[in-house]
Amino acid sequence: MTSQTTSQFVRPRIDARALLGLYDPADSIDWGPIRAAQLHAGSQLALFMLAANVVGASLVTMLLAPRVPLWQLASWSALVAAVACAVAFRRLAKQHRNAVTGSLKDVRETVLDGISLGAVWSIPPLAFGHAVDADAVLGLWIVLSLLMTASAVAMAALPLATIAFVAIVGTAVCTMLALSGPPVLAAAAALFTTLLAIATFGRGRALVVIRANEMALAERDETVSLLLREFEESGSDWLWEIDAQRRVARANPRFAVSLGADPKTINGTPFLQLLAGPTWEDGNFAPGLRALAERLKGREPFRDLLLPVYVNQDERWWEMSASPRHDERGAFIGFRGVGSDVTEARKSADKINQMARFDTLTGLPNRLLINETLARAMTDADKWGSRCAFMMIDLDRFKAVNDTLGHPVGDRLLGRVSERLNLLMTENEMIGRLGGDEFAVVVRDATDTQRTEQLAQKIIDALSQPYEVDQHTLYIGASVGLAVGPRDGRTAEMLIRSADLALYRSKDAGGGVFHAYEPQLHMAAEERRVLEIALRSAVENSEMHLTYQPVVNAANGQLTGFEALLRWTHPQFGNVSPVKFVPLAEEARLIAPIGEWVLRTACDEAARWDIPVRIAVNVSPEQLHNPAFVSVVAQALAQSGLPPERLELEVTESVFMREGTVAIEVLEKILDLGVRLSLDDFGTGYSSLGYLAHTRFSSIKIDRSFVQGASKGTKEAIAIIRAVVALAESLGMATTAEGVETEEEHQMVQQLGCTKVQGYYFGRPLPVQEARMLATRATGNSAAA
Asked: What secondary structure letter does DSSP report for 331?
């Protein structure tokens, strides 16, 4: 125990009011046992105080007998004896002598003892002092002073009662001396009484401090004893002790049992030999045992040192702690410590570590272990001047499997993917799952660039083969992004970022390929980041505007409507192509507010036109997957005053590719408002025909690629246009040919049966003022049917 800890026991804070018995404070000290100790100390000297009172009364009687009537002295002596006996008997009561705790009431009641004794002893100086001579007064003062001193010494454990007695008797003596003697004697008596009261309080406080320390030490000893008893009874913990030569001394039974040995046979055996077990002979010690040997050799304390121990050919894990021991002369005499069998805890920790670093679905290393492995590979590559590599793998078309067949099938498919990837790995690579349908490969030695790229292609080829899952034949693919360290990143985080950018390029290229990182990818990513920041404030800064491209009747060239096209002019970047910023807006979840602005602006403008031509607005799939979009359309119509039949929303067939969404319900509610619906870029997908029969489209727009192909005489393009026109006519829909740029193309699509055309031949996208003038000049019969 340190001196600081010891001082906490010998210097407790004692409240003066609590010491006197005026109240019990709510502090850390338990005053119940202290009160009992005070009462017990008073009972121990009760007979002594009784004798002191009797002897004192006898001396006063003899001193005053020649000067005071004997009957008065006898009566007073009898009163003293009666009061003293009553006080003694009460203090000797059984409950005070045997009690382990005392109450505040018990201590307060002792004040009556002091007051009673003080009252009877104040009678001689006050009643007889004026009738005796100076010698008798002096003698009486001496006897009373001795009695007060004896009380202060013997009864200090009850300071309030003792101080009350001393104060009453001292006041009486001072009064006697002031009336019959020199004032200096009265002052001396007053000083003596004050000092005696202070001494009584100090002695009482010292006794309480001692008792508080005794209680604290007893409690500590009891706690230590309980802990040691519990410790000894525990089946997995034990004490051990070795001498200065590192041999077992006084072998603990638990320690011996844990080693599978007899306690009597291991005394004097080298400690390290016992712990090393079968490895002692060959010297193939575990690192933990070597660390223990170093601590023992250096006579250093140690804590929670983990080492393997073989007990009956079974490996156990022990945790050891110990401190060096010294005798009273300071000489080193060995170590004493504690050991714990933590085998089960270590197994649990290994299991937790396994769960923390491996994916539960596939059993592959997860993101944490991948990052740790890549960091080690980066360190080794930097140390040896070699290269490592990191691949990010993203499954193509996996989301469609999840959406159409459900997550259980998707999970089983991920298991098959992980099996194929494992077959491609060697000791030089580690495959892991980042999450979702993303996997990663760490190549520890990527010095051979061609071999690393071949591995990337093997991964794509292997994952592109068909899968048989739950009687379903599934086709997916894979895109791979490759980065080589430290060339493409000096840290693991930078290398992962580079591989991610390369993967982004592979996905952007349509998937099924791998790309290695190039510096310009980072520049492109930075450009996207800057554009996204600028895009977030483009609407508020009035940087966006709409242009309006005319749509005309294929037969007579009359104006039937406009298509609103979004344009962005940035102060720094200039005109930003929609091909660049629209996908970015969808990726950044900005398309909804931008699309709402486009819809409201287009409706407001169309409401200004004198003729009832239609306005067509492109709608993103993200907007249609939000049920609130119906309210957005209704509010735009209501606030602008535009009739619903003059608004046409253009959607692409990608809207219907996502299963389990509300897109169909949203479209039906929009159609119920009276708004028309057009299917844009028809023929570029592969699943639109079914939706044409179930959704109330008013027109189909034929993609410009088919128009251009047909103008060049491509038979497939001509056949597709004819099929679409025939399908539209059978369903009562109009057809609009996009991208018509020449008179020949116009004549061709007209002959093929298209009802409306749109393209540069009839007009480029116009600024709002020019579109408004064109709509105003149009004749009434040019209105849409």
From this structure: -
